[in-house]
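Closing statement on the nicotinamide-adenine-dinucleotide sub-project.
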Amino acid sequence: MASEEFDVIVIGGGPAGENAAAYAIAGSNRTAALVEHQLVGGECSYWACMPSKALLRPVEVLGTARHMPGVEEKVNAYGLDTEAVLARRDEFTHNLDDSSQVLWADSVGIDVIRGSARITGVREVTVGERVLRARHAVVLATGTTASVPDLPGLRAALPWTSRDATNVREVPKRLAVVGGGVVACEAATWLHELGADEVTLLVRGSALLERTEPFAGEMVAEKLRKHGVNIRFGASLQSAARPDVADTGVGRVHGGPVTLSVSGDGSDPELTVDEVLVAAGRTPATAGLGLDQVGLPDHGYVTVDDHLTVTGVDGDWLYAVGDVNGRALLTHMGKYQARVCGDVIAARAEGRPLDGSRFVASADHGQVPQVVFTTPEVAAVGLTESQARADGVDVDVVAVDIDVAGAALSRDDYSGRASLVIDRASDTIVGATFVGSGVAELVHAATVAVVGKVPLESLWHAVPSYPTVSEVWLRLLEARPTAGR
Ligand SMILES: Cc1cc2nc3c(=O)[nH]c(=O)nc-3n(C[C@H](O)[C@H](O)[C@H](O)COP(=O)(O)OP(=O)(O)OC[C@H]3O[C@@H](n4cnc5c(N)ncnc54)[C@H](O)[C@@H]3O)c2cc1C
Ligand SMILES: NC(=O)c1ccc[n+]([C@@H]2O[C@H](COP(=O)([O-])OP(=O)(O)OC[C@H]3O[C@@H](n4cnc5c(N)ncnc54)[C@H](O)[C@@H]3O)[C@@H](O)[C@H]2O)c1
């Protein structure tokens, strides 16, 4: 077996892995290998964030146009042009060709190695016949894959996962979606608009988007229902039967009708659909990765400290960034961790102390922003009221409808709501949630306030421009009894 040496070896070429490799060698003559067994760019670029947002943007634009006098008269008779929407999606995913990402890797001095990697010893990674040795660090960035519950008949029915939904080629007319989380809500939104006439969400809990403020899930549910999506809460999938299964490829209907057995919500116990999309969370891609070779459990999320160093392994050489550490399953958080991790590797390689906040992934703890691109959008950062109370924080909560001039101007049917969770002791915001059209771009101001621990007294002087949706900040501050008085 050939043996090669690199300063840094990264396993997994998704957004987290790419950034960890780039930061670890930036401005130095260190070498890095990035091992990828599918496409450089990872789940995000080809099967997750990029295609899903490319599919959702036209839905939002059409929704706005349909509520804008002067425009609505021109568009109301039409739906989306499915072919054009899918073609634009394919442009964003580069038709599943990663050559531009590989060129970028090359340009920053990263060697891309194709193949499936596994750890075979301390600082040692094996890819097929090649044994790679790391002088300084090995970074795990293998991400997650879609979880498909082990229910009778379900896996045999070849259900859709998020990859099929984002890479849709053939829109099923009757669709069941298992789950009520982010993937379920977003996918139901675009698939319904692209022509899935009968969409049923099977949600085992009692709310959508359970990790957000309750009003967010309620507003998304209300809008989905208004658009004709059937949401069954308390509905538990028991089994699936698909007599005519066909492996037609990603994004195509996988055979004949599927009959689902559903219990718990008192509604029809049998549901027959053309396709079932399982959106029931993620499984870390650690099975077979050789974690047991270094004394770690051989599956599950990999636990790290705030330097992204894997806990339970001596020598500070093994790191894990992105989805695989289970801290925050979001691209921007994986890339943030990667920047911290790369800086830590560089500092340790150069014998510099880890002095300063740049070397600590502090935002992972209660300061995570997220945008859910549903109709309406949900944008949130930090803690919800219930999370803050569970953490023992004494909080005030203010919530107002987004009823400002900027909102009314942006579309005629604007309806939205915003809330702040305020730590009474420090008079700072520990959480913020916005629901409404276009709120995706509103959340970063809240992130700055949360991370910067900006006192509300100071925020009173951060004057939102008129007429913008951001004016809701003023309404929120006014809604707090003592604000600015
Ligand atoms: C439908 C959907 C939509 C999403 N939308 C958003 C969004 O809008 N915004 C957002 O922030 N997040 C979104 N996410 C989450 C986001 O996709 C993930 O958080 C992100 O991809 C994680 O990046 P990563 O680099 O950790 O892992 P991944 O992107 O999963 O990349 C891991 C890479 O490692 C490779 N790999 C795995 N094992 C090995 C091995 N043994 N050897 C070699 N290579 C290996 C894989 O092939 C893959 O390329 C979405 C997720 C889904 C499912
Ligand atoms: N816009 C975004 O930021 C975005 C978009 C999509 C996905 N993501 C990320 O991807 C991750 C995965 O998304 P997701 O929607 O798959 O997961 P999720 O954790 O958000 O939701 C999973 C849903 O499936 C349900 N569920 C879990 N196990 C089940 C079972 N056995 N039977 C029936 N229902 C079950 C849960 O109750 C929940 O409703 C999320 O953590 C999210 O952060 C982000």
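The chain has four domains: 3-41+98-145+283-359, 50-90, 155-280, 376-478. With this model delivered, the sub-project is considered complete and its resources will be redirected to Aim 3.
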